[in-house]
Design goal:
- Belongs to the CENP-N/CHL4 family.
- This is Centromere protein N-like.
- InterPro entries: CENP-NAC/CAD_complex (IPR052011), Chl4/mis15/CENP-N (IPR007902).
- One of its GO terms (biological process) is chromosome segregation.
- The chain is 37% helix and 20% strand.
- By secondary structure, the protein is an alpha+beta fold.
- The chain has three domains: 52 residues; 126 residues, S-adenosylmethionine decarboxylase (4-Layer Sandwich), CATH 3.60.90; 105 residues, Roll (Ubiquitin-like (UB roll)), CATH 3.10.20.720.
- Strands 2-3-4-5-1-6 form a six-stranded antiparallel beta sheet, sandwiched between helices. A four-stranded mixed beta sheet has the order 8-7-9-10, with no helix packed on it.
- Helix 1 packs across helix 3 and helix 6 packs across helix 7.
- The longest helix has 15 residues.
- About 5% of the residues have low confidence.
């Protein structure tokens, strides 16, 4: 393995994280002494010990471990396995990483010089593919593709890949899993666990997620607020909730009830981007001619967690509740790209529906 490539990989890890991984895998002796040296010095020290010892396979394992620990460094696309038969897959032993690795490697090595590594992590098969541009070249593996597959599920997540490899990779996965084809879905993101949650738990999102995750709202009576406790000890008068009169108590109660039914009390699955393509009539003045034809535009929501952000818009009153269904049901749609159209029925032309792409 080329020293510069190995150094680049080591530098991706945090200092203690790198040492822990190498010790856990047995690449470093148990007697390895941790020091207070900088990360750069520690990496140089480890390189001297391992540069000539690690095989391409072992480096592939380390690279895969890094992406398991830091999956958000990649953008993941979702593919549907059309014609997938879980019973057949169960009988063919595809839940075993070694078996899966052998089969997909045999398919791809017909066309490329490729290094394949498969590991089971958090109930999913993590697949590392490293390609060489030239089949006879002995240089460092450069082009890499990562896949995540939950055994017996009809979906697989794949990172971006070059067009030169895409057809062969998808065909290899199709053959190994015994499906008819892979169809790319309108769902992508950086949080692998959230993507899996959206795909595998479609019918248990929102309010029902509390039962699946076995979580309940925290009881505000269990622990006194620290600021209130501080004021009480200082002799400052504390205004208790019973002394506060809410003018719109009924309205707030209805809003909270709707929000809980729509989103539940648990954290929402993470999607960094949600896009709506609007093909609706413009809801403006009747004097404007543009109301006669569809008004096409695209609206994008971006942020650390779009669904959580939409939930907070309703919770804080920044958006009117109830929210439109195309906003309140994103967590159950298995997608983050939607097309909104006017209903075709005359009496409902002014309402929107989310069309299935």
């Amino acid at each position: 393995m080329h020293r510069d490539a190995l150094k680049k990989l080591f530098n991706k890890f945090k200092k203690d994280e790198l040492i822990d991984v190498l010790l856990d895998r047995g690449f470093l002796d148990e007697g390895f002494q941790r020091t207070t040296a900088t990360k750069s010095a520690s990496v140089s020290r480890i390189l001297k010990l391992l540069c000539e010892k690690l095989s391409d396979k072992q480096v592939a394992v380390l690279d895969l471990i890094y992406h398991q620990l830091h999956p958000k460094t990649k953008e993941w696309d979702v593919f549907l396995l059309s014609g997938f038969d879980p019973e057949r897959a169960r009988g063919s032993g595809l839940t075993d990483p070694k078996n899966f690795e052998t089969q997909i490697c045999s398919k791809l090595q017909l066309y490329f010089n490729v290094d394949v590594c498969v590991q089971l992590y958090n109930n999913a098969l993590w697949i590392h593919l490293a390609f060489l541009e030239n089949k006879t070249s002995q240089s460092t593996f450069k082009d890499k593709v990562y896949l995540v597959y939950y055994p017996l599920s009809p979906y697989i997540m794949v990172t971006k890949m070059k067009a030169a490899y895409k057809q062969y990779i998808l065909q290899a996965v199709t053959d190994v899993l015994g499906c008819t084809e892979l169809k790319q879905q309108k769902l992508s993101g950086k949080d692998v666990q959230s993507l899996a949650d959206l795909l595998l738990n479609k019918k248990s999102q929102g309010y029902f997620s509390e039962f699946r995750l076995k979580k309940m709202d925290s009881n505000p009576l269990c622990q006194e607020n620290s600021a209130r406790r501080k004021r009480r000890h200082s002799g400052e008068k504390v205004i208790v909730e019973s002394e506060i009169t809410e003018e719109n108590k009924e309205e707030i109660g209805e809003k909270d009830k709707w929000m809980k039914n729509a989103f539940g009390s648990c954290d929402q699955p993470v999607l960094e981007k949600v896009k709506f393509t609007m093909e609706t009539r413009f809801k403006g003045s009747k004097e404007q001619d543009i109301t006669k034809n569809p008004f096409k535009c695209t609206v994008k929501f971006e942020g650390p967690s779009v669904i959580e952000g939409i939930k907070n818009l309703g919770k804080t009153g920044a958006a009117d509740v109830p929210l439109p269904s195309h906003l309140s049901t994103i967590h159950s749609q298995q997608r983050n790209h939607f097309i909104l159209k006017d209903r075709k029925r005359p009496r409902e032309m002014d309402s929107l529906k989310v069309s299935q792409l």
